[in-house]
Amino acid sequence: METKLWGPFLYRDYRVLWTILVFGSIVVWMRILSTAQWLLDETGSAYLVGLIGVVQLIVQIPATLWAGTLADRANRKHLITVAHGITGITLLSLGLLDLKGVLTPSMIYLGIAITAGTHMLASPARSALIPIIIPENKLLLATSTDTASQNGA
């Protein structure tokens, strides 16, 4: 049995899911870089920039514990849609607050907490969809592509 590298991309649902993964990862990295830069520019404090990791960790640990269960019990497509929607609204709000000149470090940390939580909630739902939309003989390649894309984006 010959496996082509693009095998999973022959399935429309996988292409859509993969596109969401790549854009979601890009948004996460843009959020990480922009919030860190904003904190450094506005406060000049490397300590406050370092707190980004602490805030993310505090949110991600409990979110990870519940995300898999939620992905098993809820509609996975809706879960991903809601998570990305909340992320988008949060980041748009941070941008608008910055444009108005009223953005504060505590608002940044709240935005980081929300987006870290929504990212962790969407991740198991996305992973659980792959075996549903890809045949078993292409599952290993699809999962590998998913992981590599997430790490590379």
Automatic annotation (TrEMBL):
It comes from the Bacteria. The chain crosses the membrane at residues 16-40, 46-67, 79-97. The keyword Cell membrane applies. GO terms for cellular component: plasma membrane. It is a multi-pass membrane protein. Keywords: Cell membrane, Membrane, Transmembrane, Transmembrane helix, Transport. The keyword Membrane applies. It holds the Pfam family MFS_3. It is found in: Cell membrane. InterPro entries: MFS_trans_sf (IPR036259), TM_effector (IPR010290). SUPFAM superfamilies: MFS general substrate transporter (SSF103473). Gene3D superfamilies: MFS general substrate transporter like domains. This is MFS transporter. The lineage of its organism: Bacteria, Pseudomonadati, Pseudomonadota, Gammaproteobacteria, OMG group.
